[in-house]
Amino acid sequence: EVDEFVGKKTDKSYRLLEEMLTKLLLELDSIETGGQDGVRQARKESVHRIQAILEKLERKGL
Q1: In the record, which residues are listed under signal peptide (predicted)?
Q2: Of 24, 25, 33, 51, which cross-links 40 as Cys (Cβ 3.0–4.6 Å)?
């Protein structure tokens, strides 16, 4: 949906996308790795991916 977004940061669709992505970050933050490197790495990669998507959304918002 971010790829298809055209609009302003004040648009409802922008705020909805931003909120959904932020909630995903919060969910990832709550994941306990239990000392498992694979889980920690997967969480880290997911956080970086979501942050990149948020940055893309920010650039697209006029």
Answers
A1: none
A2: 33
